[in-house]
Amino acid sequence: MIVRTTTEITDTDRDITSEDGNWRSKRIVLGGDRVGFSFHETTIKAGSVNEFHYANHVEAVWLVEGTGKLIDLDNNKEYDLAPGSMYLLNGHERHRVEPDTQMRMLCVFNPPVTGREVHDENGVYPLVEVPA
After folding, report:
1. Fewest CB within 10 A of the end CB: N or C in the chain?
2. pLDDT value at position 51?
3. Which residues contact residue 18 at a Cβ distance below 8 angstroms, ignoring those fewer than 6 apart?
4. Share of the chain above pLDDT 70, in %
5. The pLDDT of residue 49 is above 60
6. In b/e form, how buried is each residue of 81-106, taking b as 16+ CB within 10 angstroms?
7. Is 52 inside a domain boundary?
8. What are the C-alpha distances in Å from 94 to residues 15, 33, 105, 108?
9. Strand, helix or coil at 51?
10. What are 106's strand-pairing partners?
11. Count of structural domains within the chain
């Protein structure tokens, strides 16, 4: 059994802030935990514009705090987000998140991220193998 708190993760190598400071992700469960997924708490700053494309991962996101917009860049659709909203990037959609207020979301990635990934110039996480 694994039990962790966000308090113990804060300011460790599991607590990642984007280079532009727009978002912060606390990686609660990572690939090294060997459970087949990773689980993160991500906070995105109000008024920021954030483009992502998880070409190698499926991501499920549940918004627990804040409001904003999700723009599906592949299908030219826009969605309002509020607490209780969930979106699933099961088609590896390129997307943009534009928070009106600070957004806090709980995210699940499959395959799991290892914690060493960095978004490339296209917003993509590379597929990093979990060492045996």
Report:
1. N
2. 94
3. 24, 50, 119
4. 89
5. yes
6. beeebebebeeebbbbbbbeeebebe
7. yes
8. 24, 28, 18, 17
9. strand
10. 41, 62
11. 1
The total number of residues written for the chain in this structure: 132
What global pTM score does this model have? 0.88
* CATH at residue 104: 2.60.120.10
Q: What one-character DSSP code corresponds to residue 131?
A: P
pLDDT at 50 over 80: yes
Range of the domain at 79: 6-110
Q: Does position 130 have pLDDT exceeding 70, yes or no?
A: no
The secondary structure element, H or E, covering residue 7 is helix 6-9
Examine residue 17 and state whether it is found in any structural domain, yes or no.
Answer: yes
Residue 1 domain-assigned? no
